[in-house]
Amino acid sequence: MARDAAGEALGVRVAVIDGGQDRVPKISGDDFARRFSLRARNMMWLLGAGVSAAAGIPTAADLVWEFKQLLFVSQRRVSPSSVADLSSPEVRSRLQAHIDSSEGLPPAGAADEYAALFEAAYPAEGDRRVYLDTKIAGAKPSYGHLVLATLMRAGLANLVWTTNFDPLVADACAKVYDGTGALTSVALEAPDLAAQCIGEGRWPVEIKLHGDFRSRRLKNTGVELRQQDQRLRRLLVDSCRRFGLVAAGFSGKDASVMDALEEALGRAGAFPSGLFWLHPGEEPAVSRVQELLARASVAGVDAALVQIENFDESMRDLARLTQGLDTATLDSFAGERQRWSPAPRPQGRCGWPVVRVNALPVAFSPAVCRRVVCRIGGHSEVRKAVEGAGVDLLAARTKSGVLLYGSDADARAAFGGFGITEFGLHTVDPKRLRYESGERGLLREALMRALGRRWALSVIRRRSEDLLAPADPSGESWAGLRRLVGTLSGTVPGHAGLRWREGISARLDWADNRLWLLAEPRTVFDGMTPENRAAAGAFARERSVKRYNRQLNDLVAFWAAALSGGGAELRALGIGDGVDAVFGLGAVTGFSRRARA
Fold first, then answer.
1. Cα angle value 407/408/411 (rounded, 5°)
2. Where is mean pLDDT largest: 96-110, 119-133, 345-359, 579-593?
3. DSSP string for residues in 267-331
4. Full-prediction pTM beyond 0.90?
5. 3-state secondary structure string, 88-107?
6. 525-559 pLDDT tens trace
7. Looking at the structure, do residues 358 and 372 belong to the same domain, yes or no?
8. Are 154 and 109 in the same domain?
9. Is the same domain home to 159 and 203?
């Protein structure tokens, strides 16, 4: 046992956090929903980048790799295509090595890594604002945002703190309130207004702790701005004595906010209605969050790490259980329950579908994968282990262990140094394929690898989808595609380094109790940079603007036949030992028509 400043102030003994998250109180999402339904009026919210990610806005971690990529390409004068796949451990290793060799840039994971790299990539603040605007443009509030706004309208979420710079909370309120006047949104430049609203109970209030502040490093801002930042954080500390706190989408890596929460915990009566940290995914929370929750629990606060699938699903649970919400209106806004039912394949001359959709049914997918239980950390460490062993494995980190496809010898080579305690098979539960679970992510990676391997397609990994295009567009196997669209590859006029190929975007989705491959015709670019992104978009629009129903129907039909291969077996790795991922795709796409009454 040991004492710290918070423990001394409260007169309690605080346990040293060793051994990770085994001492952190944890509760399930449904348990949290029941507690929240009784305490909502006394809870405030802290929103981080993970909440905005649900609406399609990249997180700071995503942008960090984009900055590293931009600096590498521009400073090394190499082709952007050589480091296009930011999910690749090999690419990330090359980018990080370049950053580590650069003078004046912080190491990976440093508190100021995001802001320092942002400034290095775009030194002018005006350019940084334009860049952020392009990332926010077009984003719409997610279902979770709409639930939060509905809670606000019911007086059940009066105070929201956020480190995000986007307007998604305000947009959600404008939709739910049918106007923009109800919410007071306070930015970094107006700490007095924030204090006044809280003091007078002028609810609801959204307080942006950083505003556009994250586009700068603290040392590069004026004294006044730094003081305003301190005043808002002081207001956060004071508010923690009046309300409980729900943290959502916030990783705990923002040192200034964590400092404030830790300071608040050192005061008597902190978090009177509890401290709940919504944590999605399989990887453990960062150590500072674990320590905060453990110390809060020792201090008598009802504190817990809440294991959730994602922000939207968690907010849906709150909407179901919280009394006083207009859920009918909420459902109409968000389209939570779309009215549809599966329909049989149309028969006869009058049975044609009204709308053909670009979804291919996954006829069969792997029922099992290899499971390795060992003392390895999260997903990034798994990737590093595979890369370090120089083996070809498809792997994902989950609560159950490391799930993978590949040869057994390769699996042992990669993870043998981490003390393997179990080495067996894992049944892929169909229920975990309904959402973005570790298993579904692993199947997605395996299916894209299988398609690329079987049909000679280049695969470019993206966060929410993958881009596939013929590795050799001049090949005879693509003659049918050339007849439909003409030339399949080339260079964008006026941009010698920007090359294009006819291809598709692809992702896995779940509907009608099964997996589907969604394939959308797309112009795939190699060598795209922030400077030529607009030219790429204009070129893609020009290629697709005259593709009307008949042309799109023919394109979807071509790709459906090409990808399914007449029911051909698709193997991700083609190995003779271990566990391979084997798929089959149906050649008939999904369709939609009005059901008969």
1. 90
2. 96-110
3. STT-STT-EEEEEESSSPPPHHHHHHHHHHHHTT--EEEEEES-HHHHHHHHHHH-TT--HHHHH
4. no
5. CHHHHHHHHHHHHHCCCCCC
6. 999 888 888 899 899 988 888 787 788 888 988 99
7. no
8. no
9. yes
101: left (phi over 0), alpha (psi -120 to 50) or beta: alpha
CB 286 within 8 A of CB 253: yes
How many CA atoms are closer than 13 Å to the CA of 423, on its beta-carbon side?
16
Coil, strand, or helix at residue 67?
helix
Tell me the C-alpha distance between 449 and 404, whole Å.
Answer: 13
Is the Cα dihedral 431, 437, 439, 445 positive or negative? positive
Here the CATH number for the domain that contains residue 170 is: 3.40.50.1220
The pLDDT of residue 457? 95
Q: Are residues 132 and 219 in the same domain?
A: no
**420 class by beta-carbon count within 10 Å (0-12 exposed, 13-18 middle, 19+ buried):** middle
pLDDT in tens, 400-427: 899 999 999 999 999 999 999 999 999 8
Range of the structural domain that residue 585 is part of: 339-366+434-597
**In this structure, what token pair is assigned to residue 352?**
């044609």
Distance CA 344, CA 347 (A): 9
Amino acid identity for residue 555 in this structure: L
Q: Which amino acid appears at position 268 of this protein?
A: A
What domain count does the chain have? 4
The helix (H) or strand (E) run that includes residue 437 is none
- Of the CA atoms within 13 Å of residue 285, those in its CB half-sphere come to 29
Tokens of 455: 């049909």
Task: With H, G, I as helix, E, B as strand and everything else as coil, classify residue 540.
Answer: helix
Whether 361 and 319 map to the same domain: the answer is no
Regarding whether 171 and 220 lie in a shared domain, the answer is yes
What CATH number has the domain bearing residue 402?
Answer: 3.30.70
What is the pLDDT confidence band of residue 3, given thresholds at 50, 70 and 90? very low
Confidence check: pLDDT of 19 > 50: no
Where is the domain boundary, 272, 307, 332? 332
- Decide: helix, strand or coil at residue 427: strand
Could you tell me what percent of the chain has a pLDDT over 70?
87
pLDDT tens, position by position, 456-501: 999 998 877 899 999 999 999 999 999 999 999 999 999 989 999 9
Of 281, 315, 332, which residue is a domain's last? Answer: 332
Q: Tens digits of per-residue pLDDT, 186-199? A: 887 788 898 999 99
Q: Report pLDDT digits (tens) over 210-225.
A: 765 545 554 444 554 4
- DSSP characters over 20-59: GGGGS-EEEHHHHHHHHHHHGGGEEEEE-HHHHHTTTPPP
Does 14 have pLDDT greater than 50? no
Same domain, 383 and 262: no
Q: Do 226 and 301 have their domain in common?
A: yes
pLDDT of 324 above 90: no
Look at the block and give the residue holding tokens 């508190």.
111
